[in-house]
Amino acid sequence: MFGANGQLNVSRVVRGLGHGLDEAAVAAANKMRFKPALRNGQAVDSTAIVHVVFQLAY
Q1: CA distances (Å), 48 to each of 3, 20, 30, in order?
Q2: pLDDT in tens for each of the 58 residues of the chain?
Q3: How far apart are CA 2 and CA 58, in angstroms?
Q4: In angstroms, what CA-CA distances link 20 with 3, 16, 24, 47?
Q5: How far is Cα 23 from Cα 18, in angstroms, rounded to an integer?
Q6: How many domains does the chain have?
């Protein structure tokens, strides 16, 4: 849930990887800030799926 206050609230992990990666993705997503959706010029809550990609370093 993308809140009208500019914060993200993760309600569930759609497809988890386990090994602590799900928790790391939720923690990273909760730190995101954004411009909220507008309806008639007013900030409103909205929903979307956020994809978090993990990449291994060489």
Answers
A1: 11, 23, 14
A2: 899 999 888 888 888 888 888 998 888 888 888 899 999 999 999 998 888 888 888 7
A3: 34
A4: 26, 9, 6, 25
A5: 8
A6: 1
- Token pair recorded at residue 49: 């799926």
The whole-angstrom separation of Cα 2 and Cα 33 is 9
What pLDDT, on a 0 to 100 scale, did the predictor assign at position 31?
A: 87
Instruction: Report the pLDDT value the prediction gives residue 44, as an integer from 0 to 100.
Output: 97
Residue carrying the six token digits 């730190």 = 31
What's the whole-model pTM score? 0.67
CA angle 49, 21, 55 (to 5 degrees): 85
- Compute φ and ψ for 17, nearest 5 degrees: -110, -15
